[in-house]
Design goal:
single chain; seven-stranded antiparallel beta sheet; 7 strands; 33% strand
């Protein structure tokens, strides 16, 4: 995402400046997301693990997932396929102690991505959705697990769940990661912050400083 809209000249707020690669990194590191859908009077939501699909330019185009057929969210999204999906990345309380400044107010750093999507369910997607999730989660293990190890239980499980594609219609995000701090304060926080994941994301968004 650019710092300004070329059509209108509107400046993008500091914490809303991010790239497609940042979206991908957050989704791959924090795949468990809130999926919300349904009418305002009958809103449903569930935490579901999702795997991103990206085009040749690195832009998020789909999310692959599955859920129980008995989950009320399934019925809600069949009636209205429009969903809002919320990914929460690293988050941490930052104390004046971390900043080494008593005249500095505490804050909370975080990263989030919000995705609008149209949900398409399909029984033919279920095994694929399970495969891509398991492959992603088991990657790098000495002995990766596979569904065939479930034996007959696998077929019984398939009857109770359904896969889906979430076709992305919009993406927004907020990455509040110390971009507004002066160099000395940022350096102090990075040195003192005990959360390694948060520190890594802060460095990602403050490269070259």
């Amino acid at each position: 995402m650019s710092d300004a809209d070329g059509m209108t000249g509107v400046q993008v707020p500091l914490f809303e400046r991010f790239a497609d690669a940042d979206v991908r990194a957050l989704i791959e590191a924090y795949p468990l997301a809130w999926v919300c859908g349904g009418t305002p009077a009958a809103m449903e939501s569930s935490l579901l693990p999702l795997i991103g699909v990206f085009d040749d330019a690195g832009r998020l185009v789909e999310l692959i997932g599955h859920l129980m057929r008995s989950n009320p969210l399934h019925a809600a999204l069949r009636d209205d396929p429009r969903a809002t999906i919320l990914f929460a990345g690293p988050q941490a309380y930052v104390s004046p102690e971390h900043a080494r400044r008593r005249d500095w107010a505490p804050t909370w750093n975080y990263a989030q991505v919000k995705v609008g999507a149209d949900i398409v369910f399909g029984s033919d997607l279920t095994e694929y959705a399970l495969k891509v999730l398991i492959d992603a989660m088991e990657a790098g293990r000495v002995e990766p697990w596979g569904v065939e190890e479930l034996g007959p239980r696998y077929d019984a499980m398939l009857d109770r769940i359904i896969g889906f594609r979430a076709r992305v219609t919009r993406v927004s995000g907020k990455f509040k990661l110390g971009q507004d701090e002066d160099d000395a304060t940022l350096g102090a926080i990075l040195d003192a912050l005990p959360d390694g994941d948060m520190a890594a994301w802060m460095r990602r968004f403050n490269r070259g400083r």
